[in-house]
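User: Structure tokens for this complex, please. No commentary.
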Amino acid sequence: MASSLRALRRRIRSTKSTKKIFSAQELIAGARIVRAQARVEASKPYAREITRVLSALASSASLDHPLLTERQDPQRAAVLVITSDRGFAGSYNVNVLRRTEELLALLRQEGKEPVLYVVGRKGETYYSFRDREMAETFTGFSEQPAYENAREVGSALIDVFTAGEDDEQGGAGADGVLGVDELHIVYTEFRSLLSQVPVAKRMAPLEVEEVEEFDYEREDRESGTGTDSGVPTSYEFEPSAEGLLDSLLPKYITTRIYAAMLEAAASESASRRRAMKSASDNAEELAKTLSRQANQARQAEITQEISEIVGGADALISAGSRD
Amino acid sequence: MATLQVELVAVERKIWSGEASMVIARTTEGELGVLPGHAPLLGQLAEGGVVTIRTDSGEDVVVAAHGGFLSVTERGVSILAETAEISTDIDVERAREALRRAEDAGDDPEALNAARRAQSRLRAAGESA
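Assistant:
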């Protein structure tokens, strides 16, 4: 009995100290969400402007840029997966990776060979544990991505996409590099503090996003500055429209990767906070149950001791009366 | 007097916005001054470029903008840059240091880029580069 009481007390102590870790993690994640959301907000003006410029350009330039044209008979598709570097985030990584598996299955069904690009250590371990080949991995910035990181990832993807332009049936083309014909991205969209949804999107060939264009038009109408006549403004271009498109499109893709990373970072912190909250609630519950058991054990021990003493006294009395 | 509504945005945040009477920038084609009522224009800013925004009150806001675009519409001017810094925020010592480091690093594209970035920062701060 005494030993079980000691064991219970030890468990209570360890539960309480893990609870401290969980609630500290919860607080950190909470602070990070706020910062991550602020960064998502701060990056929006640029995203909006670049979309606006691109749509202006798209209406003026001929759209036969390699990043915009659908390739005939696509063979390989690059998939960029954004996961977290650390665990302790509940189902965050599992959900992203599950969504990725769905996309990979779909691509294979369409006869395209997926090529994996992974951001985040968790994704890296997931695929290396399963002996799956990854073209490139990027780690160390999942919680606070900088634009530099997005540019690194973006230029790797754009390079491999451009290299795929002259690929022939099953082999590398004239440049000797086996590229890809499509770029996809899987990340977690931050809808609200309670809902983060893994999404898969195609980045290239690019569909200049009509939703965003629509947003921009609506905003125009709201602010009363839109050209209601529907006649697109005719721009002058320096250098040529095609030259601008050349330098703008890679930047646009990088911006989208950056935006995805920021959303993923916010989602990561949000899921981590939720996971840590339920973990610390659980720990508290467990500590409560355990201390009830410990109290019961202690009470039982005392009762037993008393009955032993009483029993002993009785025995002594009855022994004494016989003398 | 008519004014331009100017927005200067970098990827990570909005740097400056407000009314201005004139914007001076250098595109890949050459120096360019934008006054109110300018025809719509899309331009790519020259690498290592400096953008000057002359505000309503006649002050100049000088900005080192790197890897950017200039878009002029009837609503105003937006300047999009990968990185941008207002001259008053530029640490000249650090920019010099960065330039020296970049020049020592040889001529791979990364270093050349860094050197151009440092040069534009120095130029915006009014130093010779």
